[in-house]
Design a protein that fits this description.
Rossmann fold; 2 domains; nucleotide-binding; ABC transporter ATP-binding protein; Oligopep_ABC_C
């Protein structure tokens, strides 16, 4: 892997912890001792179902919520230790594009104001130079400079997301956090935005933290993938290996969720699921493996011991006892599912 731009070590993010009366009470660990690395020019895909802790990692990285424990080393600066906010030189190097293009843009600001606001805050450019830069940015994302005087409500969802990307690119950051950047868009617009992100990454060498719940989409754009379950990183590795030969049962379950076009294969999959443990909610076990209540391969050992992080053939790691044996040799993907 290339030199690490960001190294997250044993990050824990806890919400709550006190009652309204100031009495101590236990909080909820949305992220539990997570460790991740993003190299320069690399895209790391972070996947998992809703509530797994993906956005909590993003919010901690952006300084929107405090880290309860652990380190976030960005260019040799521990972001977790900056309790009074990030200095300007850090803020300009880390930008974000959020999920909903209809609420992430200020409706009272023109496109020019939205795109040039980072330049106004972080650079000494005069108004004319900022406008020239905004025109260039709109061209980069496939919009016309004549759109600068318009407001967000005059654009489609895909166009709004392009405006958000233009604003994120304004300061030429080293890292962009993409929190579900295409999930609110239709399929054709998704492809356009993904191709745009590809192009800008290759042209500038910036890095992406791509957060999504769609493993197939993440595989398509990422160099490496990390899989989260209930605050834990349960698997991490090269994108092709994680997608084609998953080493953790939860990763395989995410792939199993991809619909099949063949009714016979879909019926066979449903029949296989009936033999798996039934759990109404994806809740963590009180001891042992956090996934054991839902895992079709759970063993007695999984109830008594917490799985260590183990290396996986083909690269990466998995937090599963079966990574010691032959889970990677099991069928990697449901028959009939292909990469995008």
């Amino acid at each position: 892997m290339t030199d690490a731009l960001l190294r997250i070590e044993d990050l824990t993010v806890t919400y709550g912890g006190r009652s309204l009366l100031g009495l101590r009470r236990s909080g909820v660990d949305a992220v539990k001792a997570a460790t991740l690395t993003i190299g320069a020019g690399e895209t790391l895909g972070l996947v998992g179902e809703s509530g797994s802790g993906k956005s909590s990692i993003a919010n901690a990285l952006l300084g929107l919520v405090p880290a309860s424990a652990g380190r976030m080393m960005f260019n040799n600066t521990d972001l977790a230790a900056l309790r009074d906010g990030y200095p300007p030189e850090v803020r300009r190097q880390i930008q974000a594009v959020f999920q909903d293009p209809y609420s992430s843009l200020n409706p009272s600001m023109t496109v020019e104001q939205i795109v040039t606001e980072p330049l106004k805050i972080h650079t000494g450019l005069d108004p004319a130079a900022r406008r020239d830069r905004a025109e260039d940015l709109l061209r980069l994302v496939g919009l016309a400079p004549t759109h600068l005087g318009r407001y967000p409500n005059e654009f489609s969802g895909g166009q709004r997301q392009r405006i958000a990307i233009a604003a994120a690119l304004a300061l030429q950051p080293k890292l962009i956090v993409l929190d579900e950047p295409v999930s609110a868009l239709d399929v054709s617009t998704q492809n356009q935005i993904i191709n745009l992100l590809y192009e800008r990454r290759d042209a500038t060498g910036m890095s992406y933290l791509l957060i999504a719940h769609d493993l197939a989409l993440v595989h398509h754009i990422s160099d490496r993938i990390a899989v989260m379950y209930l605050g834990h990183i349960v698997e991490e590795g090269p994108a092709d290996r994680v997608y084609h030969a998953p080493a953790h049962p939860y990763t395989r379950a995410l792939l199993d969720a991809v619909p099949l076009l063949d009714p016979a294969r879909q019926r066979a999959r449903r029949a296989a699921r009936r033999s798996a443990p039934v759990s109404d909610l994806p809740r963590a076990a009180t001891g042992g493996c956090p996934y054991r209540n839902r895992c079709p391969l759970a063993m007695p050992r999984c109830r008594a011991e917490t799985p260590p992080v183990l290396p996986v053939a083909g690269g990466g790691t998995a937090r599963c006892f079966l990574a010691e044996s032959d889970i990677a040799a099991h069928p990697a993907r449901p028959e009939g599912v292909t990469a995008p």
